[in-house]
Design brief:
Number of domains: 2
GO molecular function, one term: aminoacyl-tRNA deacylase activity
GO biological process, one term: alanyl-tRNA aminoacylation
Subcellular location: Cytoplasm
Strand content: 35-45%
Mean pLDDT: 93
CATH superfamily of the largest domain: Threonyl-trna Synthetase, Chain A, domain 2
Oligomer: single chain
Keywords: Hydrolase, Metal-binding, Zinc
Largest sheet: 6 strands, antiparallel, barrel
Strand order of the largest sheet: 2-3-7-6-5-8
Organism: Roseateles puraquae
Structural class: alpha+beta
Helix content: 10-25%
CATH class of the largest domain: Alpha Beta
Radius of gyration: 19 Å
């Protein structure tokens, strides 16, 4: 299994690791700071560095061959098993993911409906809500700005699977369920605002989200309303 350093500290941008295996298109490592695609959040990109060589990491994903291992997709011939490498992630991409992902939790607090779709990328984030209620774009925008400005602390903690079973309302997503079998579940708490299971990367205070805007609200189906977020340009902040 790959030790997931990003679960405890999303600010880590580099670490030392050892290649455990080559897989098609990349390598698995014994430990990493790179977040793998999952839970709606895109995987990290960056570099592997060893012996004066640099391999561009084009994506990070969960291994299809080894349960619990994380695959780092690289350009060119990957380093061999046993190679000691330095993992470096794209800091700007990671920060965008952290800001957008935390902003989607604020959306969940403002819109109390089940979530049936999610996408968090470097340039936008979207949530699909299971409801036929109309959304007020200006009201959502004002609510986001208020929660960001209030500077709520953001932290994660772990609860047992039994605690989750006793509080099923914590799970907001209809499409992505918390992983089972480990005996514990990671939850993300925005103090006084939101609490729900989440394995993604986040900022440590809502003030760090900065200026985000609601770029679009769509009616995707009779029972689905989509909200898309973007980063505000300087003139919009």
């Amino acid at each position: 299994m790959t030790e997931e350093l990003f679960r405890e500290d999303a600010t880590l941008l580099a670490c030392d690791a050892v290649v455990t295996a080559q897989e098609e298109g990349g390598v698995t490592l014994d430990r990493t700071v790179s977040y793998p695609l999952g839970g709606g959040q895109a995987g990290d990109t960056g570099w592997l560095v060893a012996g004066g060589q640099r391999w561009r990491v084009t994506d990070t994903r969960k291994s299809k061959l080894t349960p619990g291992a994380i695959l780092h997709c690289v350009e060119g011939e990957p380093p061999a098993a046993g190679t000691a490498v330095r993992v470096e992630i794209d800091a700007a991409r990671r920060q965008a993911h952290r800001r957008f992902h935390t902003a989607t939790h604020l959306l969940c607090a403002l819109l109390p409906y089940p979530v049936d779709g999610c996408s968090i990328t470097e340039t936008y984030a979207r949530l699909d809500f299971h409801t036929d209620e109309p959304f007020d774009k200006d009201a959502i925008q004002a609510g986001l700005a208020r929660l960001v400005a209030e500077a709520h602390p953001v932290r994660h903690r772990w609860i047992s699977e039994e605690e989750l079973d006793a509080n099923p309302g914590l799970v907001r997503s209809m499409s992505v369920q918390p992983p089972r079998g480990l005996g514990r579940v990671r939850v993300l708490e925005i103090e006084g605002v939101d609490l729900q299971p989440c394995g993604g990367t986040h900022v440590s205070n809502t003030a760090e989200i900065g200026a985000v805007i609601v770029t679009k609200i769509e009616k995707k189906s009779a029972k689905t309303r989509r909200v898309v977020l973007g980063f505000a340009q300087p003139s919009e902040a």
